[in-house]
Amino acid sequence: MHIPPETEQRLRDLVRAFLAENQKINLSAFRTEENCWAGNVLDSLAALDTPPLQEAQQLHILDLGTGGGFPLLPLAICLPQCTFVGLDSVQKKINAVERIVKELHLPNVSLFCGRAEEVGHQPAHREQYDVILCRAVAEINVLLEYAAPFAKTGGTVLLWKSLNIEQELQDSLLARAELSCHLRDQHTYELPGSFGKRQILLFQKTSKTPGKYPRAVGVPKKQPLL
Predict the structure, then answer these.
(1) Residues of the chain with pLDDT under 70
(2) Nearest to 134 by CA among 122, 121, 144, 126
(3) Which uninterrupted H or E stretch holds 10?
(4) Which domains are assigned to the chain?
């Protein structure tokens, strides 16, 4: 992907700010600029090659389980015309990302702490977002239950995944039907060095999410839709 020089400089500044925070609180296993650039920044920016981010116009985007701020922060730098919200259940992580946002002067980013199972029922967030980003580690059927309630009808859920997930895709068929999230694309890409090939799954939400979803805190992971 082509990154304009001034944008690359801002992304490099992000890496340095992130690594400084990562020394205070464990946000990522990537502790060098090279690994953070490939494993966090470039991995996040792979989403720019997926619709609707290819030609994003003033989209309202949620990063669900933002952790240390990826893919939230690189995409916010590259898409200043869009508004971004980062949600995580760990206040210390939200505080760290907030410090990075202030240092980099990112006016299009806001952050808050909460559990997806609870926030997904709040009118201020339920079915309010054009795109949901989810780079968190969990099964597809679990991630869709977390993410779908936040997406508008017609909106998109992007899930970062490895390549060998045939069984996981099979196990997600009921969740996809129940949550009206249909797999539209599997975008594969390759990162430098030992990071190798990965993919982003693109799901489109075609109708409203039933009111009972997401279920209570902890239930989606303990009793996934199968």
Answers:
(1) none
(2) 144
(3) helix 5-22
(4) 5-222 (3.40.50.150)
